[in-house]
Amino acid sequence: MNSYLLTNMTWEEVEEALNTVKMAIIPVGAHEQHGPHMAESCDAVLATEMAKKLAECMYPYVFVTPTINMGVSPHHLNFPGTISLKPDTLIAILRDMVQSLKHQGIKKFLFLNAHGGNQSTLGVASTVLSQEEEVEIYYAKTTSSAKMSIHQFIQSPIFGHSCEREVSEALYLAPYLVRPDKLSAGDFCEGGRYKQLRPGKAIQGFYRYEEMTKNGCIGDATKATREIGEQIVTEATENIAESLRELLGIEIELLN
Protein backbone atom coordinates (compact mmCIF):
# COMPACT_ATOMS: atom_id res chain seq x y z
CA MET A 1 0.00 0.00 0.00
CA ASN A 2 1.10 3.55 -0.68
CA SER A 3 1.69 6.11 2.06
CA TYR A 4 3.81 9.15 2.78
CA LEU A 5 5.99 8.70 5.88
CA LEU A 6 8.55 11.48 6.32
CA THR A 7 10.98 9.24 8.15
CA ASN A 8 11.32 7.11 5.00
CA MET A 9 11.43 9.90 2.41
CA THR A 10 14.07 12.07 0.75
CA TRP A 11 13.56 15.81 0.41
CA GLU A 12 12.86 15.40 -3.31
CA GLU A 13 10.18 12.82 -2.56
CA VAL A 14 8.62 15.15 0.00
CA GLU A 15 8.71 18.03 -2.47
CA GLU A 16 6.77 15.94 -4.97
CA ALA A 17 4.30 14.73 -2.33
CA LEU A 18 3.51 18.33 -1.40
CA ASN A 19 1.69 18.64 -4.72
CA THR A 20 -1.18 16.61 -3.22
CA VAL A 21 -0.65 16.58 0.57
CA LYS A 22 -3.19 18.70 2.45
CA MET A 23 -2.45 17.68 6.05
CA ALA A 24 0.38 16.53 8.32
CA ILE A 25 -0.39 13.84 10.90
CA ILE A 26 1.81 14.17 13.98
CA PRO A 27 1.75 11.00 16.13
CA VAL A 28 2.05 11.73 19.85
CA GLY A 29 2.84 9.03 22.39
CA ALA A 30 4.53 8.60 25.75
CA HIS A 31 7.33 6.68 27.43
CA GLU A 32 5.87 5.26 30.62
CA GLN A 33 5.27 2.10 32.56
CA HIS A 34 2.63 -0.26 31.21
CA GLY A 35 2.50 -2.86 33.94
CA PRO A 36 4.46 -6.12 33.92
CA HIS A 37 3.37 -7.17 30.42
CA MET A 38 3.92 -4.16 28.09
CA ALA A 39 7.03 -2.30 26.95
CA GLU A 40 7.30 1.32 28.04
CA SER A 41 7.38 2.54 24.43
CA CYS A 42 3.84 1.25 23.94
CA ASP A 43 2.02 4.56 23.41
CA ALA A 44 4.62 5.93 21.01
CA VAL A 45 4.60 2.73 18.95
CA LEU A 46 0.80 2.49 18.82
CA ALA A 47 0.52 6.14 17.78
CA THR A 48 3.05 5.49 15.02
CA GLU A 49 1.32 2.35 13.74
CA MET A 50 -2.12 3.96 13.77
CA ALA A 51 -0.73 6.94 11.87
CA LYS A 52 0.68 4.59 9.24
CA LYS A 53 -2.74 3.02 8.74
CA LEU A 54 -4.32 6.43 8.34
CA ALA A 55 -1.64 7.42 5.87
CA GLU A 56 -2.54 4.40 3.75
CA CYS A 57 -6.24 5.25 3.90
CA MET A 58 -5.67 8.92 3.11
CA TYR A 59 -2.97 8.61 0.43
CA PRO A 60 -1.96 10.89 -1.28
CA TYR A 61 -3.51 13.65 0.85
CA VAL A 62 -1.60 13.30 4.14
CA PHE A 63 1.88 12.58 5.33
CA VAL A 64 3.05 11.35 8.73
CA THR A 65 5.79 13.15 10.62
CA PRO A 66 8.25 11.59 13.08
CA THR A 67 6.55 10.56 16.31
CA ILE A 68 6.81 12.56 19.52
CA ASN A 69 7.66 9.55 21.66
CA MET A 70 7.40 11.11 25.12
CA GLY A 71 4.36 12.72 26.68
CA VAL A 72 2.76 14.14 29.81
CA SER A 73 3.15 11.25 32.28
CA PRO A 74 3.85 12.62 35.80
CA HIS A 75 1.29 10.22 37.28
CA HIS A 76 3.52 7.28 36.26
CA LEU A 77 6.87 8.67 37.46
CA ASN A 78 7.13 6.47 40.56
CA PHE A 79 7.36 3.41 38.29
CA PRO A 80 10.95 2.95 37.03
CA GLY A 81 11.72 3.98 33.46
CA THR A 82 8.96 6.53 32.96
CA ILE A 83 10.08 9.78 31.28
CA SER A 84 7.61 12.66 31.42
CA LEU A 85 7.40 15.98 29.60
CA LYS A 86 5.87 19.07 31.13
CA PRO A 87 2.78 20.27 29.23
CA ASP A 88 4.56 23.42 28.06
CA THR A 89 7.45 21.28 26.77
CA LEU A 90 5.09 19.18 24.64
CA ILE A 91 3.39 22.31 23.33
CA ALA A 92 6.78 23.83 22.50
CA ILE A 93 7.78 20.76 20.49
CA LEU A 94 4.47 20.82 18.63
CA ARG A 95 4.86 24.55 17.95
CA ASP A 96 8.27 24.00 16.37
CA MET A 97 6.98 21.15 14.22
CA VAL A 98 3.94 23.14 13.07
CA GLN A 99 6.08 26.20 12.27
CA SER A 100 8.55 24.07 10.30
CA LEU A 101 5.86 22.41 8.20
CA LYS A 102 3.88 25.62 7.74
CA HIS A 103 7.04 27.10 6.22
CA GLN A 104 6.81 24.33 3.61
CA GLY A 105 3.14 25.03 2.86
CA ILE A 106 1.19 22.75 5.21
CA LYS A 107 -1.79 24.51 6.79
CA LYS A 108 -3.70 21.60 8.35
CA PHE A 109 -2.52 19.29 11.13
CA LEU A 110 -3.81 16.31 13.11
CA PHE A 111 -2.23 15.46 16.46
CA LEU A 112 -2.85 11.69 16.67
CA ASN A 113 -2.51 10.76 20.33
CA ALA A 114 -2.14 7.36 21.98
CA HIS A 115 -1.78 8.51 25.62
CA GLY A 116 -4.73 9.73 27.66
CA GLY A 117 -2.49 11.95 29.78
CA ASN A 118 -1.76 14.07 26.69
CA GLN A 119 -5.35 14.89 25.81
CA SER A 120 -5.83 18.05 27.88
CA THR A 121 -2.46 19.42 26.73
CA LEU A 122 -3.32 18.69 23.09
CA GLY A 123 -6.62 20.52 23.51
CA VAL A 124 -4.73 23.60 24.67
CA ALA A 125 -2.11 23.17 21.94
CA SER A 126 -4.79 22.92 19.27
CA THR A 127 -6.48 26.12 20.46
CA VAL A 128 -3.32 28.16 21.01
CA LEU A 129 -1.31 27.08 17.96
CA SER A 130 -4.25 27.36 15.56
CA GLN A 131 -4.55 31.03 16.49
CA GLU A 132 -0.83 31.79 16.78
CA GLU A 133 0.11 30.18 13.48
CA GLU A 134 -3.13 30.80 11.57
CA VAL A 135 -3.46 27.13 10.65
CA GLU A 136 -6.07 24.43 11.29
CA ILE A 137 -5.13 21.99 14.05
CA TYR A 138 -7.18 18.99 15.16
CA TYR A 139 -6.47 16.21 17.64
CA ALA A 140 -7.76 12.67 18.09
CA LYS A 141 -7.20 9.75 20.42
CA THR A 142 -6.12 6.74 18.34
CA THR A 143 -8.94 4.27 19.08
CA SER A 144 -11.39 6.00 21.39
CA SER A 145 -13.89 6.42 18.54
CA ALA A 146 -14.26 2.62 18.18
CA LYS A 147 -17.34 2.66 20.40
CA MET A 148 -19.05 -0.39 18.93
CA SER A 149 -16.03 -2.69 19.19
CA ILE A 150 -15.08 -1.47 22.66
CA HIS A 151 -18.64 -1.93 23.91
CA GLN A 152 -18.77 -5.42 22.40
CA PHE A 153 -15.46 -6.78 23.67
CA ILE A 154 -14.31 -4.79 26.72
CA GLN A 155 -16.12 -5.72 29.92
CA SER A 156 -13.87 -4.30 32.65
CA PRO A 157 -15.51 -1.36 34.46
CA ILE A 158 -12.17 0.51 34.47
CA PHE A 159 -9.88 0.12 31.44
CA GLY A 160 -7.59 2.15 29.22
CA HIS A 161 -4.03 1.45 30.36
CA SER A 162 -2.29 -1.85 29.61
CA CYS A 163 -5.73 -3.43 29.78
CA GLU A 164 -7.51 -5.87 27.46
CA ARG A 165 -8.18 -3.03 24.99
CA GLU A 166 -4.66 -1.64 24.75
CA VAL A 167 -2.97 -5.04 24.85
CA SER A 168 -5.31 -6.28 22.11
CA GLU A 169 -4.35 -3.30 19.97
CA ALA A 170 -0.68 -4.06 20.55
CA LEU A 171 -1.12 -7.73 19.69
CA TYR A 172 -2.50 -6.59 16.34
CA LEU A 173 -0.28 -3.58 15.59
CA ALA A 174 3.02 -4.38 17.34
CA PRO A 175 3.03 -7.73 19.15
CA TYR A 176 6.68 -7.37 20.19
CA LEU A 177 5.50 -4.87 22.82
CA VAL A 178 3.67 -7.60 24.75
CA ARG A 179 5.11 -10.11 27.26
CA PRO A 180 2.54 -12.92 26.84
CA ASP A 181 3.84 -14.91 29.81
CA LYS A 182 3.24 -11.95 32.15
CA LEU A 183 -0.27 -10.88 31.17
CA SER A 184 -2.02 -9.67 34.31
CA ALA A 185 -5.23 -8.10 35.53
CA GLY A 186 -4.98 -4.77 37.31
CA ASP A 187 -4.10 -5.09 41.00
CA PHE A 188 -6.32 -2.31 42.31
CA CYS A 189 -5.68 -0.51 45.58
CA GLU A 190 -8.50 -0.25 48.08
CA GLY A 191 -9.57 3.23 49.10
CA GLY A 192 -7.46 5.09 46.55
CA ARG A 193 -8.30 8.68 45.65
CA TYR A 194 -8.71 7.60 42.03
CA LYS A 195 -12.27 6.53 42.87
CA GLN A 196 -13.19 10.16 43.51
CA LEU A 197 -11.02 11.83 40.85
CA ARG A 198 -11.29 9.68 37.71
CA PRO A 199 -12.96 11.09 34.57
CA GLY A 200 -16.72 10.93 34.90
CA LYS A 201 -16.74 11.92 38.55
CA ALA A 202 -18.05 15.26 39.79
CA ILE A 203 -14.50 16.49 40.43
CA GLN A 204 -11.33 15.50 38.58
CA GLY A 205 -7.76 15.99 39.75
CA PHE A 206 -4.22 14.67 39.77
CA TYR A 207 -3.40 11.37 41.40
CA ARG A 208 -0.47 9.01 41.01
CA TYR A 209 -1.00 5.69 39.33
CA GLU A 210 0.27 3.67 42.30
CA GLU A 211 -2.68 5.08 44.25
CA MET A 212 -4.92 3.14 41.88
CA THR A 213 -3.01 -0.01 40.92
CA LYS A 214 -0.07 -1.80 42.50
CA ASN A 215 1.15 -3.42 39.29
CA GLY A 216 0.67 -0.38 37.05
CA CYS A 217 -2.12 -1.72 34.86
CA ILE A 218 -5.91 -1.70 34.93
CA GLY A 219 -8.59 -3.85 33.30
CA ASP A 220 -7.73 -7.48 32.57
CA ALA A 221 -5.02 -8.05 29.97
CA THR A 222 -5.47 -11.83 30.18
CA LYS A 223 -8.60 -11.34 28.04
CA ALA A 224 -6.75 -9.56 25.23
CA THR A 225 -6.61 -11.06 21.74
CA ARG A 226 -5.23 -10.02 18.39
CA GLU A 227 -8.71 -10.35 16.87
CA ILE A 228 -10.18 -7.85 19.33
CA GLY A 229 -7.35 -5.47 18.54
CA GLU A 230 -7.93 -5.74 14.81
CA GLN A 231 -11.64 -4.92 15.15
CA ILE A 232 -10.98 -1.92 17.40
CA VAL A 233 -8.20 -0.54 15.20
CA THR A 234 -10.19 -1.08 12.00
CA GLU A 235 -13.28 0.69 13.34
CA ALA A 236 -11.25 3.60 14.72
CA THR A 237 -9.25 3.99 11.51
CA GLU A 238 -12.43 4.11 9.44
CA ASN A 239 -13.98 6.68 11.77
CA ILE A 240 -10.96 8.99 11.78
CA ALA A 241 -10.47 8.63 8.02
CA GLU A 242 -14.11 9.52 7.39
CA SER A 243 -13.79 12.65 9.53
CA LEU A 244 -10.56 13.64 7.79
CA ARG A 245 -12.13 13.26 4.36
CA GLU A 246 -14.90 15.63 5.44
CA LEU A 247 -12.46 18.14 6.93
CA LEU A 248 -10.27 18.08 3.82
CA GLY A 249 -13.16 18.10 1.39
CA ILE A 250 -11.96 15.04 -0.53
CA GLU A 251 -13.54 11.82 -1.69
CA ILE A 252 -11.34 8.74 -1.60
CA GLU A 253 -12.06 5.08 -1.14
CA LEU A 254 -11.05 3.64 2.25
CA LEU A 255 -8.42 0.95 1.74
CA ASN A 256 -8.88 -2.24 3.74
Question: What report would you give on this structure?
Answer:
The protein has 256 residues and is an alpha/beta fold. It has one domain: Creatininase (Rossmann fold), CATH 3.40.50.10310. The protein has helices at 11-17, 42-58, 87-103, 119-133, 147-153, 164-173, 194-197, 226-248, and strands at residues 23-28, 62-64, 108-113, 136-141. Strands 2-1-3-4 form a four-stranded parallel sheet. Helix 2 links the parallel strand 1 and strand 2. The chain starts with 10 loop residues before the first helix and ends in an 8-residue tail after the last helix. The mean pLDDT is 95.
Radius of gyration: 18 Å
CATH superfamily: Creatininase
**Can you give the mean pLDDT?**
95
Structural class: alpha/beta
Helix count from the secondary structure assignment: 8
Quaternary state reads single chain
Topology:
Elements: H1 11-17, E1 23-28, H2 42-58, E2 62-64, H3 87-103, E3 108-113, H4 119-133, E4 136-141, H5 147-153, H6 164-173, H7 194-197, H8 226-248
Parallel strand pairs: 1-2, 1-3, 3-4
Helix pairs in contact: 2-8, 3-4, 5-8, 6-8
